[in-house]
Specification:
The protein is mainly α and 131 residues long. The protein contains one helix and no strands. The longest helix is centred in the middle third of the chain and has 129 residues. The chain is rod-shaped and about 185 Å long. The relative contact order is 0.03.
Length: 131
């Protein structure tokens, strides 16, 4: 009887072992695929991290460039303001010079007329003296 029970237990053990081997064998396939998937995801994560650092570096460079350009623009704006004021002052000076030229032209005209009158009077005087 013990031998019969032992055979039954041994058969039962073999069945459980076969089921367990079948279960372990069937479950390692999905586990292997999951390990490969995890490794692929880790590789993708590393690639994404490298790209992220590169983009961060480029972004920082762009921020630096924007700051430099903003500073340069402010300097140029100041120079434009100074040049605009100088241009306005020059325009004012030019208008004053044009007005002065106009006055001098009128004065010259009057002087030439007076000269012509004086020359005419001088000619008459010479003619009257020569008679």
């Amino acid at each position: 009887m013990i031998q019969g029970q032992f055979k039954q237990l041994l058969a039962r053990y073999d069945r459980v072992r076969a089921k367990l081997a079948k279960f372990v064998g069937s479950s390692t396939g999905p586990l292997d695929r999951q390990v490969v998937d995890i490794q692929n995801l880790e590789h993708q994560l590393n690639d994404a991290s490298v790209k992220s650092r590169e983009q961060q570096h480029k972004s920082e460079q762009l921020v630096d460039n924007i700051a430099a350009l903003t500073s340069q623009k402010a300097d140029v704006d100041k120079q434009v303001a100074v040049l605009s004021q100088a241009l306005e002052a020059t325009k004012t000076d030019m208008i004053a010079a044009q007005n002065r030229v106009g006055v001098l032209f009128d004065e010259n005209k009057m002087i030439l007329q007076e000269k012509a009158v004086i020359q005419g009077q001088f000619k008459q005087l010479q003619e009257s003296l020569s008679r």
